[in-house]
Amino acid sequence: MSKMFQAGPQGTRIKSDCQVFYKPASDPLIINIESKVDALFSKTIRDLAETTLASLGITTGSVEIKDFGALPFVMMAQIETVVKRAHPEIDKEVLPEFKAHAQYETSFGRFRRSRLYLPGNQPKLFLNAGIHQPDSIILDLEDSVPPAEKDAARYIVRNALRTLDFFGAERMVRINQGELGMQDLESIIPHNVHTILLPKAETADQVIAMEAKVQSILKEKGLKKNIYYMPILESALGVLNAYDIATASKNNVGLAMGLEDYTADIGTQRTLGGKESFFARSMLVNAARAAGIQPIDTVFSDVGNETALRESVRVTKSMGFDGMGCIHPRQIKPIHEEFAPTEAEISKAKQIIVAADEAEAQGLGVVAVGSKMIDPPVVKRAERTIRMAVDTGLLAKNWKE
Amino acid sequence: MNKKYELVKNAAGRMVPTEVNGKSQVPFQGVNGYKPDGHKAAPPIASCSDYPSDGNKVVGSIKEALELAGLKNGMTISSHHHFRNGDLVMNQVFDAAQEMGTKGLMWFPSAAFPCHAPMTEHMESGLIHHIEGSLNGPLGKYASQGKMDGLAVLRSHGGRWQAVQDGEVHIDIAVLAAPTADPMGNATGDRGPSACGLLGFGLADSMYADKVIIVTDNLVPFPCYPWQIQGQNVDYVVVLDKVGEPDKIVSGTTQLTKSPDRLYIAELTAKFVRAAGIMQDGFSFQAGAGGTALAFAIYLKEMMLEAGVKARFVRGGSTKYLVEMLEEGLTDYILDGQTFDLEGVRSMRENEGHVNTSPFTSYNWHGKGNFASQLDAVVLGATEVDVNFNANVVTHSDGQMLHGIGGWQNCLFSKCTILPIPAFRDRIPVIVDEVTTLVGPGELVDVIVTERGIAINPLRTDLIEATKDSDLPIRTIQELKAEIDDLIGGTPQKPKLTDEPIGVVKWVDGTVIDTIFKIE
């Protein structure tokens, strides 16, 4: 009797996913498929199962697929998972088509007000994530994925990176800690991941090691690309080394705070007021600012409470942070609205931009508003304020006209 | 079953039977193509001398009432669906009919619910020959499998009134459950232990049936005032201990969607209504009780408050959200067809501006105008829309019969018909090349709002023009379809359907717009 291997979610309320059962044997391959969308996709599903199994070299045994409306990229990942659980020696990947809409770029200084966490083994949450217009989406391989699903999540995330349109959101992946994280990089780096979130960053060496790994993967694949990093500080040591970590790579775009683990590490609990984390957060803001990158705050976990979320964003903003994490799409809009500049900020920024334009038109090297000289970083800050005001709908795109 | 139907091609290019359940049919002739002549049907002339002068028409039981009404083989018994899944009356009616040994009855409810599952046994036994009405739950499944003798005939709320009024369906006996009634038969839905708000779906039955039986658990001395059904139309009154399960008649609270995608679609829909210039002082709209439609009403309310805009009227099904708008002065009237929650029932009782309407005033196409066409915007659901904006609401993309039409077809005549729908459900796309079943002709469907963009019917150049400078994600329906087909892994294959009809869909004028075929 050979063993039965299994992949896919458990339970009765499965959506946009599938279960795959595989029993290796010496008899010719048999594939049984039962699908909720059989009437519309029976042929497509069979073709996909046959092709995927063939490219993994599976010609014998029996495979059973129970489908609950999985999109092709998900089904491919679940088949790959079950096959590799049975045959860990297979290193061939089965990749879905790399869609044009999955190949857009990001930029160093873009907004990262909201970053939407998506558990890597729950593809149903990926499909429409981009329509809620977070600044970034985080395909998470770490804490939201149970240990037994790490392999599946890696293939699902990889395939999602090649397939899905996130409508301009920055494409982030949070990798696992340690060696597992290095393996995650192998899987995802070639597929236009924009930014890697490095969990539990405690020393600059971790960032340097990650960057070296990324560089070697890029080199091996013959890719020339800028991959950005955002280390997450989640411990006392990480907080104390914040500046070293922030400056460990020129491709760091921000430092993020992870408060659940941090508060445990310093021997306390997270409170709504957040006194216990004031030092850590302030330290992070200063380190990030000193390094010229974005300070990003932790997530707010009470999804149903918008009032408290807004209050927490106001505190976050006032501490100097540029953004925070989200665990539900409904948090995105309140976060953007609270990070939006005030009317006074906008009006001041407008004056500065107009003055800068005039200075440039007249070939002057110095910008002045009234009798006050304006330094270049202030102009840059004003530009950012204006961009954010336009982005949040507080200012017309053509406000200069 | 397995009867051969002669099919002809109608004006929409759909193959439809020329005869349904023994009656010859007019194929669909275009949205405004068919105008019958002649006079309306009417019940027989009655004489007060045949009725008790003290006005007491109470009889001992449902069975006695059916016997007195002269129930015979092959007759049509009708009912309303205001008790929804909490109806305790109609199963008893057919149990009584069975005791009387009758056969071959037609049940003509305005809709059937899962609580009516026992009717499948009555169909197996031959007591009920077939059902014409919206079929939900087990009865829908039974009919989908082609097990019912005769064809399912799906009509809109307005179409049901039209069919009764035009004599297409002759009701022998109407059995109308009433939350409160007096011995003469004056009856109302807005009070009593089984209060359901109103009784509009049973109004035509009370006016056109040969015999009318009122069944209540709250008999009050004459007069039951205000009344919704007139005792002058009623033959017998039956009093039971309990006619309905209140918590299944209306919900305590209406459920708002929590899905972020659907909330996004709802918000986009409200933004469209605002951007298109529809949201102006004195405007009107209708949105149903589905999660997305409710959320739409809430977003629109916020925008109305922000802009200081007030509606002249909104159309129910009413919910607490519409009631709030009425009580906060954001609309002068709710013109209500059915109440969906307890707040709706309360408001109908208490608020003068909460008006009880019927399918005659709201929807009937063979009349001298109706409310639906005066609405500035209506927000409806759909299972499928095709690239020509034809829409389906009765079958799923896999051909399974799902549910009835409700007021859906009637509402298409509003000035702006908007369908907020998710672009795909699981892997099943909503935008298709050709709808499985044609229920709403594309020329009446103006806007599709999905989470991936808004498509405006090219016929509505005015709406395209009005929103062209907005920041709304307006795209062509072909673009939306291409994006979704790419995501789901290609255009799906067609479900395999047999050539055996299991039902027909009527247009608002009584013509046959499409046929539902059995799945292979």
Structure notes:
The complex is a heterodimer of chains A (401) and B (520). With 401 residues, chain A is α/β, with parallel strands linked by helices. Chain A has 3 domains: 5-86, Ribosomal Protein S5, domain 2 (2-Layer Sandwich), CATH 3.30.230; 100-339, Alpha-Beta Barrel (TIM Barrel), CATH 3.20.20; 343-391, no CATH class. Helices cover 40% and strands 18% of the residues of chain A. Chain A contains 13 helices and 14 strands. Chain A has helices at residues 38-55, 72-86, 150-163, 178-188, 204-220, 236-240, 242-246, 259-265, 278-291, 306-318, 332-339, 343-361, 376-391; strands spanning 5-7, 18-28, 30-35, 60-67, 114-119, 136-140, 170-174, 195-198, 228-233, 254-257, 294-299, 323-326, 367-369, 372-374. In chain A, the strands form 3 sheets. An 8-stranded parallel β-barrel of chain A has the order 5-6-7-8-9-10-11-12, surrounded by 5 helices. In chain A, strands 1-2-4-3 form a 4-stranded mixed sheet. Chain A has a two-stranded antiparallel ribbon with strand order 13-14. In chain A, helix 2 (72-86) runs antiparallel to helix 3 and helix 10 packs parallel to helix 11. The longest helix of chain A has 19 residues, at 343-361. Chain A is elongated and about 85 Å long. Chain A starts with a strand and ends in a 10-residue tail after the last helix. Chain B is α/β, with parallel strands linked by helices. Chain B is 24% helix and 22% strand. Chain B is built from 15 helices and 32 strands. In chain B, the strands form 9 sheets. A 9-stranded mixed sheet of chain B has the order 20-19-18-17-21-24-28-29-30. Chain B has a 7-stranded parallel sheet with strand order 5-16-15-12-6-7-9. In chain B, strand 19, helix 11 and strand 20 form a beta-alpha-beta unit. The mean pLDDT of chain B is 94. The A-B interface holds A 15-16, 36-37, 39-44, 48, 68-72, 99, 127-128, 131-132, 163-165, 328-330, 393 and B 260-261, 263-264, 397-399, 425-428, 451-452, 471, 483, 486-490, 492-493, 495-496, 519.
